[in-house]
Amino acid sequence: MQSPRAACHIAIIMDGNGRWAAQRGLPTRKGHREGAESLRRLLKHCKKNPAITHLTVYAFSQENWKRPASEVADLMDLLRYFFKAELESLLKEGVRLRFIGDRSALDADIQTMLAETEARSAHFSQLTLCIALSYGSRQEIARACQKLASKALSGAIAPSDISPEMLERALDTHGIPDPDLLIRTGGDERLSNFLLWQSAYTELYFCDVLWPDFSGEHFDQALEHFAARERRFGGRHVA
Ligand code: FPP
């Protein structure tokens, strides 16, 4: 089975903000700020490519709660700032926003901001920006299992009804296609609890560039790399 050569859904692990700042003798928060700027630039770049329908970015992992309280607070403030500065132009450009992760752990004002943003952009369809916040893939799968277990206990479904498709519908990413390509910047080659279920057949691309330095050109290189790969999804090569 061969797939189309264009990557429609790109997922990104935006790694390297801390090292970018350290290399310049700057505090970590400057690295994150530059990282947010890099995301803003990349979104503009993606808007120019009609093949791209979904972009999912790992902005704050469940494990990131273990970072120093001051860094967590800086990241949350950056999120507030990003929305204040960018939301109206994202909406004007017709970008739909979705959020995945455990929202209950976020401050109440951020939870409200996420819900309002999703509602305001729900009718857009050309490009969806999905932001993973307080996100861990294992936790997401466990939450989905809890939902299905409750339904089974109430008698709404039988345990034998549970299929991969049903589980998929209970994930935070319901309605979002699996990523075609997952990019990780910053030199490490691991998934770090990001989209483990959804990436079963995703092509992986690792690059050494630190996230704040990641440009549209780097992104296009990753897309070219993807276009050269043959995706068989477990099937045989078709000549
Ligand atoms: C990893 O870099 C990055 C993060 C933990 C946060 C990612 C956040 C952004 C790119 C900006 C915020 C986004 C929004 C939506 C406002 P690291 O600190 O682990 O880098 P290191 O590996 O070099 O230390």
Features:
239 residues; alpha/beta; Undecaprenyl pyrophosphate synthetase; six-stranded parallel beta sheet; 42% helix; globular; binds farnesyl diphosphate
What does this structure look like?
The chain is α/β, with parallel strands linked by helices and about 240 residues long. The chain has a single domain (about 10-135, about 180-230), classed as Undecaprenyl pyrophosphate synthetase. It is about 40% helix and about 15% strand. It has seven helices and six strands. A six-stranded parallel β-sheet has the order 3-4-2-1-5-6, sandwiched between helices. Helix 2 (about 30-45) runs parallel beside helix 3 (about 70-90). The mean pLDDT is about 95. The structure holds farnesyl diphosphate. Farnesyl diphosphate binds near residues 14, 36, 59, 78 and 131.
What structural class is derived from the secondary structure elements?
Answer: alpha/beta
* Name of the CATH homologous superfamily: Decaprenyl diphosphate synthase-like
Q: Count of DSSP helices?
A: 7
Strand arrangement in the largest pleated sheet: 3-4-2-1-5-6
- Distinct small-molecule ligands in the complex: farnesyl diphosphate
